[in-house]
From TrEMBL, chains A, B:
One of its GO terms (molecular function) is transcription cis-regulatory region binding. This is TetR family transcriptional regulator. Keywords: DNA-binding, Transcription, Transcription regulation. Pfam families: TetR_C_11, TetR_N. The lineage of its organism: Bacteria, Bacillati, Actinomycetota, Actinomycetes, Streptosporangiales. Signal peptide: none annotated. It comes from the Bacteria. InterPro entries: DNA-bd_HTH_TetR-type_CS, Homeodomain-like_sf, HTH-type_TetR-like_transc_reg, HTH_TetR, Tet_transcr_reg_TetR-rel_C_sf, TetR_C.
Length: 213, 213
């Protein structure tokens, strides 16, 4: 959510090692966007980055290793959570940032490629989970602050609220393949907040009904 | 949601054409589960189904053609919506059916393979969208019946309620790669219903707040 679309130039300046990493991750993202995870090869990444193959193999090991490091870098560059003073506007910033990222030609394609890779590669799956759990944790505090301000019930599970904001947007992107619009973001905020205000995100509040039927 | 895991034997009996189709779709699903969409080839499907390559090429054209027909068949075999007499238990049947399907080794792997395929193939994307929009439409009537019974506000958007039940489950499966549990299904029902009862699914109810920040 809210990452810059390109890596090169935004990685903090450093020595040769940092420059090599920036070039390799940039090339990895380029290749992912153009060819998907199944079209990603170490040799192509090395050639595109202008870096020796040996270096790429030694340092990243495999294409899932490249993807994992790319996701780490994208997480590092992600913006911190909002703090607008109100839960509705904080969640709106979050939801609209998700919409923006998913509609960004480069970043959205990167996420889709990694989500696809995760279905068949354990290392890509772990990189994806790590990325999203970090982002969820980062944003959980906006819910905790809202609880402290009395905007939401005590015991509201912040991580679940943040997941609930994003879920309908990813569902449209990946499952029903429908457009991910600003309106969908607004609906997600409105529905999640209605449920949260009603206490449906309070830990332990789940009362399971009888058996279906 | 709630499809039988295997196709062979459940396709209605017919002539040779129906038997060939059943064998080919069964082989397509086997190959998808074992090798993913990128490992799917027309020749392997033909060999596995014991059907001539020419027949497979003539009738399905390409691997996305196979995937599209498989999704059509899975949609045809999906069970109709529940009608338990109450919206909470109807939605619970729906949510638990999604959990069951996603955790079914064969069916869950099939969906994940097609979801991954949709990120890089337009025909697979269309097949996926068609499948889910059919399932959403099928289940929308449980919400309409609930509105008619006075359980939910007039104007509640049934399709959006059904999407909201499934979205957190697919989000855990595909994005955060977390387990898709019966408890997650119960939470999804509780939260969606809380929002629906508060009117957050009523068409036109969206009041957009000020600009974020």
């Amino acid at each position: 959510m809210e990452q810059p679309s390109r890596i090169a130039g935004t990685v903090r300046p450093g020595g040769r090692t940092a420059r090599v990493r920036a070039a390799v991750l940039e090339a990895t993202q380029d290749e992912l966007v153009e060819h998907g995870f199944h079209g990603l090869t170490m040799d192509q990444v090395a050639a595109r980055a202008g870096v020796g193959k040996t270096t790429v193999y030694r340092r990243w090991g495999s294409t899932p290793g490249l993807v994992a490091d790319l996701m780490t870098e994208l997480a590092n560059q992600s913006s911190p959570h909002a703090d607008t003073g109100g839960i509705e506007s904080d969640l709106r910033v979050n939801a609209l940032a998700v919409v923006e990222a998913l509609n960004d030609g480069r970043l959205g394609a990167t996420f889709q490629a990694v989500i696809a890779a995760a279905t068949c590669d354990e290392q890509a799956s772990l990189a994806l989970r790590t990325f999203y759990l970090r982002r969820i944790e980062e944003w959980t505090s906006v819910v905790d602050l809202a609880v402290a301000r009395g905007e939401l019930p005590v015991g509201t599970d912040g991580g679940e609220v943040i997941r609930a904001i994003a879920a309908p947007l990813y569902y449209r992107l990946m499952i029903t393949r429908e457009p991910v619009t600003a309106e969908a973001a607004e609906w997600s905020v409105a529905r999640t907040l209605a449920a949260a205000r009603a206490g449906a995100f309070v830990t332990g509040a789940l009362v399971t009904g009888g058996a279906p039927g």
